[in-house]
Design brief:
This protein has 216 residues and is an alpha/beta fold. It is built from eight helices and five strands; from the N terminus they run E-H-E-H-H-E-H-H-E-H-H-E-H. The chain binds thymidine-5'-diphosphate (TYD). Thymidine-5'-diphosphate is lined by residues 19, 24, 45-47, 60, 85, 110-111, 115-116, 119-120.
Length: 216
């Protein structure tokens, strides 16, 4: 087979933002738009639904339960949590992301390395988090949905039950500050900052335009 006929690798697109920033909604919008354009794409997320991702959900749920009820088992060591996220990611790359990209499909992923750098660096050394994620494939485009923590928290509270609001808001603010600090170091145009507080249709248009620029 000539080089020209070889399948063109798909594009790897990531959505990022604090909790309640709307990444999952926007992935749905991108998928619908891509389908209409006739693009083959796979929507996926981290933590995954696989064995390591399931373990992470257990860890995250346990953390929430012990925070809300001030009881429960000892929290898992933050460095161990960071390792689990990195392990889940490598497994996801191996079994899902790379095969899809190599078969010519685009991959749209809800959260990736930047989530680990922002969230895990709150209680773990950032250098360590970077180091354990070194083997992760770099995305072609990361879309950061910028939403103020108070706005994001109000969205979460309107849609979910039982949360320790104050503590959660304080955490969200720290995560938002961590993202901001990290984002200043991406100057190669692979990270696009989108105002996630606009109306759904405006956010969708902004996100679509960023993807369109990459595809064309
Ligand atoms: P997510 O599935 O996006 O949240 P939800 O279940 O509410 O839709 O992610 C779960 C949490 O995991 C979220 O608070 C962000 C956090 N997270 C990290 O701390 N590090 C990571 O590397 C990733 C991918 C997620």
């Amino acid at each position: 087979m000539s080089a020209k006929k070889r399948t063109r690798r798909g594009l790897f697109i990531v959505l990022e933002g604090i909790d309640g920033s709307g990444t999952t909604t926007q992935i749905g919008q991108i998928m619908e738009w891509m389908r209409k354009r006739g693009e083959l794409a796979l929507a996926t997320a981290q933590p995954t639904a696989g064995p390591i991702g399931s373990m992470l959900r257990l860890v995250l749920n346990q953390r929430l339960v012990s925070r809300v009820h001030k009881s429960g088992a000892e929290p898992v060591d933050p460095a161990a949590v960071a390792l689990l996220f990195a392990a889940d990611r490598l497994d996801h790359l191996q079994h899902t992301i790379r095969p899809a990209l190599e078969s010519g499909r685009h991959v749209v992923c809800d959260r990736y390395v930047l989530s680990s750098l922002a969230y895990q660096s709150l209680d773990t050394d950032l250098r360590f988090v970077r180091q354990i994620n070194e083997k992760a494939l770099a995305p072609d485009l990361t879309i950061f949905l910028r939403v103020n923590p108070d706005v994001a928290m109000a969205r979460i509270n309107a849609s979910r039950v039982e949360r320790d609001t104050f503590e959660q808001l304080a955490v969200q603010r720290r995560v938002a500050a961590a993202y901001d600090k990290l984002l200043t170091s991406y100057r190669d145009g692979t990270v696009v900052d989108v105002n996630g507080e606009n109306s759904l249709s405006t956010v969708t248009t902004d996100v679509r335009q960023a993807v369109e620029r990459l595809l064309d």
